[in-house]
Request: fold
Amino acid sequence: SGSGKTTLLRIIAGLEPADPAPHPEGAIYFHSRDVAGINARDRQVGFVFQHYALFRHMTVFENIAFGLRVRRRRDRPSRSEIRSRVQELLELVQLEGLAQRFPNQLSGGQRQRVALARALAGEPKVLLLDEPFGALDAKVRKELRTWLRNLQKDLHVTTLFVTHDQDEALEVADQIVVMNHGRIEQIGTPDQVFHHPASEFVMRFLGDVNTFHGRVNRGTVQFSSLELPFPHERQQIAGEARVFVRPYDVTIDTKSNGLPCLEARVVRIHSAGPLVRVELVTSTQQHLISEISQERFATMQLEPESRVFVRPRHIRVFASEPEVQNPPTAEATTHSAN
Reply:
């Protein structure tokens, strides 16, 4: 996507030099030690790629042992130590009994666990994961990210996890870094970046949004046919603005109840799981999406062409900026307890 995520991981790993300008004083710290001038071999980094990069002609055991076997003689463990370490890792990634299988005899999820075990074999100080679950189906991705989160907590290894999947980032991370064309948009906990996005870019990345073109003027924000009080902490914005509302913050009612609201017509209803997704068109031809509970949906008896009143509960307002051309990338960073 051009956000610079893979380049950044390669710089951290020592596989690519950082551009010295305009910040020649730039440094890369591993546990308070600057490793920018250290050879990649000596940085003790584990790297897991999206497409596994397993050796097809090697067994699971040989793939995991590879990094240990090719070490310089003075650093190379004995055969018995390698065998013991590989067995330990097979148990850790829950692949006991598969040591003699080849990659083409494994599922996608199993291959990725082998790749992770290989990266962990050298006991890295930092683990780098470049969209490791990107080639897997949704169900396996969800299972693996829960497993990986628990594994990381047990290992206490600082981990940088690059992903385009906002749910993945929010679930696995202690800290999230959102990048846009090599520039950091925001750093914070999952709760901070989700509930308090620093920019329109971050707001768009972390979940679905309804977007309005509006205007901020004298303590209010005007959009569509609504005029609402503008949050005091954002009073520095004036003039043209964009207003964002999450689908779950768009309330629907069959009556206006005397509150500022928009008249709308139900276009489509999609019921799946605990929420019902309702697509709407307002009287000003603004397309909206609302998410309501199954219980609320049952009491309202909505159907296509129903006339309703909608009201945004919580809004976020940002100064107008050009339309986003490329999707942002989240780097979900999990920190060790050390």
Remarks:
- The domain at 210-245+247-313 is CATH 2.40.50.100 (OB fold (Dihydrolipoamide Acetyltransferase, E2P)).
- The two ends are 33 Å apart (CA to CA).
- The first strand starts at residue 29 and ends at 30.
- The mean pLDDT is 87.
